[in-house]
Amino acid sequence: VLVLWSASGDYRPSAFDLAVAPYRYDLVRWEVSNVLDKWIHKLGDLLPWNSVPPREERIADAQEYFDLGEEIAGLELRFVAGRVSNSEAKKLRGKIDTLTQLRQSMQANVEETLESEISSVLVEEGFASRIGIILPPVDTVYARSPGVLVLSPRDQISRLGTTLLRPGIDDQEREALEELVLQEHGLAALVENTGGVAAYPSIVSSSGSLHGALVTTAHEWLHHWFFFQPLGQHFWDSADMMTLNETAASIGGEIIGDRAFTAMTGEIVTRVPYRKPTDPGAFDYNMAMRETRLTTEALLAKGRIEGAEAYMEERRQFLADNGIFIRKINQAFFAFYGSYASSAASVSPIGDQLDKLRGQSRTLGEFLKIVGEFDQVEDLADYFGTGETGH
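Below the sequence we write its predicted structure tokens.
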């Protein structure tokens, strides 16, 4: 039946399909190659002759793993810069390879350490079953996180589609893909990096810090958990539901990740809420980006598409002059980053509403379980009886 059905359609690839094909991220291959490996390793640890190192040693290894990543990144920058002799370059490459192999040998144990630390926080928040099991289990792989191609109409800010791309696409290739989408389909496009993807196991960037990895791992696990709740099951219903999912995962991920980091290192994480600068002449990134979003939407609402695009480029240059470099700001940029209501690129009231709900909740677990039951964005406003909805 499948063969007959497939033969009835026209599946000739478009120029866009052919152009994107070499860059697509193979999620199926990822699942096949990682799910079994992860669980075989976990089962191996249960064997009586495989002793587990003390927690302090495992935490030290985890910190070393991310420190090695920073060291490797610094060496690669020197290598790419090309300001070394041939003999020095050979030694540099040899050192990079040695450190990379060492890091790879540590990876599986480090992943289990961070999964265990996050699971401990989740148990404290009431996410464990009666027999002490967290479902779904926290499961992640630290690797190069995929890129993403985001599409938006040019006449409004709206995410039309998202395609995962292999990591490591350079700026020239990004520009070529974005231009092809514009010419072939008349859409705004953005090729951007990601810090993580909620596959299972989740893919979390290995290039950051221990703290950042914990926060992102917790964020992606919340997407896994939301998948089994009304909130996650309605993720794709609308842009507002996507924003509600992403913002709730961001709030929870930060709190869980911060607590796990403190438990591992003893360092207290202090997050200072945004405050408008008292000096009227001081540069304020949040205000500048919010102004850019609002003005862009106003121009698009008047049908001034080219004017809006020229304005966004002017603002990109303005931000660069103030030390904030962004490769491209267009409709797809705001469609992507606007999904996170806590971002300066968003104008959604969902962030403030979720902050209010978090403040009224007795625990983080209570907050997440309340939000998890929402199957439409109106549920959030109705919870307070405000009648307000998302942007």
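The longest strand covers residues 147-153.
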